[in-house]
Write a structure and sequence with these properties.
Strands 1, 2, 3, 4, 5, 6, 7 and 8 form an eight-stranded mixed sheet that branches. The radius of gyration is 20 Å and the shape is globular. Helices cover 35% and strands 13% of the residues. The chain is built from ten helices and eight strands. It has two domains: 182 residues, Rossmann fold, CATH 3.40.50; 94 residues, Adenine-specific Methyltransferase, domain 2. By secondary structure, the chain is α/β, with parallel strands linked by helices. 36% of the residues are buried. A hairpin with a 2-residue loop joins strand 5 and strand 6. Bound molecules: S-adenosylmethionine. The site of S-adenosylmethionine (SAM) has 22 residues, from loops.
């Protein structure tokens, strides 16, 4: 019989942030494509950590270059869960945050921008429009109020509790580097690097180089592909999430890289348009061709007859 701890381990941890481009809905498809035995797992563009926290590994490093986000995770990791929840409830009471109090939200946003307490960022996100993280060029949080829609609700609270419990084990580490400055040289053949960068042909709030996010362009894309080629030459496994086509646009940089390198495997990820073929998808103006590109053959699950 499974122990309670084992059962909890099997539960997928969902990010308490409604992260743009978050992979929580695709985990069922992505995780079976990952290597079965991983020593160190690097989630190089961790975002909401939906992937990093659900991969079984001896050591997990979640990296993102968004400093305020990483500082928030580090605070979640270093503080007692009860104290974190008390801090949140306290700020909600002091600033009278609610589904309708826009003035209170604005006052609290001003408070955060003056003091930049990482835990306050979470409270702010809870009440902000679509729970999104958005900073202006002066690195001030500037997402508007989520009137009648956003609050620190029970789902967010439950996701936060599971998230904090998960990262307070001693296998998760958070780092804040630009992907090309992250030192991958310590990795060996049992390690695995997952990359979920901003997509060249779609726009998330983080990839136009505005609002406090680093931009993503062809130079960044080429730089990443070169790093992946280097990992492959050192026999280190990697997987790259991306879209080959989106709303009639194709990612030619990525497609050329795939065409040039026999070692790459393209695994198609099912989306709403799963039943269409590739060409139909490209022609369909609303469709996305979502892929996971790996440098290894996918291990088939063992059957009773193996
Ligand atoms: C698609 S999101 C990752 C979502 C994540 N897989 C999840 O499921 O929540 C991409 C992330 O890359 C980060 N990012 C953008 N440019 C980066 C860079 N140059 N170096 C490291 N991280 C970067 C963004 O801050 C964003 O959090």
């Amino acid at each position: 019989m499974q122990t309670l701890a084992e059962k909890q381990n099997l539960r997928t941890v969902k990010s308490p942030l409604n992260y743009i481009g978050g992979k929580s809905k695709l985990l069922d498809q992505l995780l079976p494509l990952f290597p079965k035995e991983i020593s160190t797992f690097v989630d190089l563009f961790a975002g909401g950590c939906n992937v990093g926290l659900n991969v079984k590994a001896e050591r997990t490093i979640c990296n993102d270059n968004l400093k305020f986000l990483v500082e928030m995770y580090q605070q979640f990791q270093q503080n007692n869960l009860i104290e974190i929840l008390q801090h949140i409830e306290n700020q909600i009471n002091v600033f009278e945050l609610s589904l309708t109090n826009e003035e209170g939200y604005k006052e609290f946003r001003q408070h955060y921008n003056t003091h930049k307490n990482p835990l306050d960022l979470f409270v702010l996100i809870a009440y902000s429009f679509n729970h999104q993280i958005r900073f202006n060029n002066s690195h001030e949080f500037n997402n508007p109020f989520g009137r009648e829609r956003s609050s620190f609700n029970d789902t967010m609270k439950s996701n936060l509790v599971h998230f904090v419990r998960k990262i307070q084990n001693n296998i998760t580490e958070f780092t804040c580097f630009d992907f090309h400055k992250f030192d991958l040289s310590f990795l060996t053949e049992n390690d695995f690097v997952y990359c979920d960068p901003p997509y060249l042909i779609t726009t998330g709030t983080y990839n136009d180089g505005k609002r406090g996010f680093t931009g993503w362009n062809e130079t960044e894309e080429y730089r990443l592909l070169k790093i992946l080629d280097n990992l492959h030459s050192q026999k280190i496994k990697f997987a790259l999430s991306n879209v080959l086509a989106h709303k009639g646009k194709e990612n030619e940089v990525l497609q050329n890289w795939i065409d040039k390198n026999d070692y790459l495997k393209v695994n198609y990820i099912q989306t709403n348009y799963a039943n269409s073929n590739y060409q139909t998808l490209v022609r369909n103006k609303d469709a996305s061709v979502e892929v996971l590109i790996t440098n290894y053959e996918i291990e088939k699950p063992k059957t009773l007859f193996d």
